[in-house]
Design goal:
about 260 residues; mainly alpha
């Protein structure tokens, strides 16, 4: 009886969800097929996340139950279906890109639209990868987000919802950040160039200082030799002066001695 009640509730919930989904898809009136499919995929992603959450809760309370198996089967089936929709969305973009290339005519508005559709396709595949990741981590800690581009991102980024236009704001913010990073990179290159010029100048000045030091060493050596010669010359001159003084003193002594001798005699 309980099983029957749960199935009835499930059918009722799915019917209501389908009505709500169709209402959300048609909210803005006439839209193109790409936008409708994008919104559908966005709503399906949310639905699969709810199924995964419900499956994990059921597994915690009733491990290995029939309900858990049914939910796991629904999740796998839903992921397969959403992959098919993603491939269809990708084909829409590829055809649009091919038509634009064949026309070989510049159209800025069309080009922006194609770039946005490409961004949407990448976002859809990122969400699918996220679903597969959290589906594998059953009953454990799950990542609520994965990086859009794991090869260029060291930290995970929050994935915006596919069924609204948040990803456009994210894309614009990323473009602004990229532009600022380009400016910073340019300034860094200029700074690097200035540092290189300063380094070359410092090297040249270092060579000049080395040459100046060598010349100063040569001058010190010459001055030292001159000092030695001057000292020797001074000593030689002092010896001659002493000889003359000695002669004069001897003469004085002889004169004094002669004077004393003449007085005594």
């Amino acid at each position: 009886m309980n099983s029957l009640i749960k199935r009835v509730e499930k059918i009722q919930r799915e019917t209501v969800d389908a009505k709500d989904k169709n209402k959300q898809l048609q909210d803005e009136g006439d839209v193109d097929a790409f936008t409708l499919l994008r919104r559908k995929i966005g709503l399906d992603v949310k639905g699969i996340k709810e199924l995964i959450k419900e499956r994990d809760e059921a597994e915690e309370t009733m491990p290995g139950s029939v309900r858990t198996v049914e939910l796991s089967h629904q999740i796998r089936r839903a992921i397969i279906d959403i992959k098919a929709d993603a491939q269809k969305l990708q084909r829409m973009y590829d055809k649009g890109q091919e038509r634009y290339t064949k026309k070989n005519k510049e159209n800025e508005e069309k080009l922006k639209k194609l770039e946005l559709e490409k961004e949407v396709c990448e976002l859809v595949w990122s969400h699918i990868s996220e679903l597969e990741l959290i589906n594998k981590k059953r009953g454990g800690e799950r990542n609520a987000f994965i990086p859009l581009d794991p090869s260029t991102s060291s930290a995970p980024k929050q994935l915006p919802d596919i069924d609204n236009d948040d990803f456009r704001t994210l894309r614009q913010n990323d473009q602004k950040i990229d532009a600022k990073l380009d400016i910073i990179s340019q300034h860094l290159q200029e700074t690097e160039q200035i540092a290189k010029v300063m380094g070359d100048t410092a090297k040249r000045q270092g060579v000049m200082l080395d040459n100046l030091n060598d010349r100063a060493d040569d001058l010190d050596t010459k001055l030292e030799n001159i000092n030695i010669r001057l000292s020797k010359m001074i000593k030689d001159i002092r010896k001659a002066d002493r000889f003359i003084i000695d002669v004069i003193l001897i003469c004085v002594l002889l004169g004094v001695g002669g004077f004393i001798y003449s007085i005594v005699r």
